[in-house]
Amino acid sequence: MPELPEVQAVAERLRAAAPWARITGFGRFRSTTMTGGRHAVGRRIEAVDRRGKNLILRLSGGWFARVHLKMTGDLRVLPDARLRPQTVRAWFALDDGRAVVLDDPRALGRISLHPEQEEQELFRHLGPEPLGPEFTAAALLASARRTARPAKLWLMDQATVAGLGNIYAAEALFEARIDPRRPAAQLSRQRIERLHSAILRVLNSALASVRAAYERPGAFTEGEFYPVAVYGREGRPCPRCGAAVRRIPQGGRSTYYCPKCQK
Questions:
Q1: CB 243 within 8 A of CB 260
Q2: If you write DSSP's letter for every residue of 100-135 in order, what string do you get?
Q3: Could you tell me if 195 and 247 lie in one domain?
Q4: Residues assigned a catalytic role
Q5: Within a domain: 129
């Protein structure tokens, strides 16, 4: 699933396509792929934002489109609305002939239209944006003190850090030398501060790698260009100490860590 860096890169690429023409129509693969599409017709895209792993297309007249890319989605602009690949599952046609399309081989992505007054309620479950000023070491420490969960599961909760997923949570814990199984509430202030810095380093580095991935044609995979230290490297040597990286199940996902470096 695309995580914060991938979704942020999509938002930046869409912003580069401005100024926008007016939306003249919409289409969808099935009814669940896009809901409320009729509310977009006749409006302009005025801005593109991101909240967690969600893209937000802000429309004129007080509406917005929420886009979740799910596992394999990508939102992009086609120069000709008529030339849509078979993997396009939903689209907005523009009056200059272009189209904004949800290209998604597995057809899991979703688009929904909402009046702007619903935004706060829609995203109320999300925690601070890690690239924003509200994400501080103090806020992370306060969150850790309120949970009994292991560090990895706590970190992946979108109420803890919006947009952080499996790959970059594992890499941040490695950077901070924290065992993903350790209860978050037991982490010292110093360790939380180290983790806070590690999250910022990992996400900024990953964002740079994703921007590079978008410079070439074709699909991409999250973390594709990011130089992972532990994620997906079970049995391979830790780049820091040489010990074999381990994989364990946590919350229905795979967690990778170094048993020697991470305590």
A1: yes
A2: EEEE-TT---EEEEEEGGGHHHHTTT----TTSTT-
A3: yes
A4: 2-3, 53, 253
A5: no
Q: What is the pTM of this model?
A: 0.90
Please report whether residue 196 resides in a domain. Answer: yes
The answer to whether 245 and 173 have CB atoms below 8 angstroms apart is no
Q: Is residue 131 part of a domain?
A: no
Model pLDDT for residues 12-36, shown as the tens digit of each residue: 999 999 888 899 999 999 999 999 9
Q: Is 83 exposed, middle or buried (0-12, 13-18, 19+ CB in 10 A)?
A: exposed
Task: Identify each DSSP E strand in the chain by its residue range.
Answer: 23-28, 34-35, 45-51, 54-59, 63-68, 74-78, 88-94, 99-103, 110-115, 246-250, 253-257
Last residue of a domain, one of 91, 122, 153: 122
Report DSSP state, residue 254. E
Domain that holds residue 79: 4-122
Same domain, yes or no: 102 and 183:
no
Same domain, residue pair 164 and 202: yes
How many structural domains comprise the chain?
Answer: 2
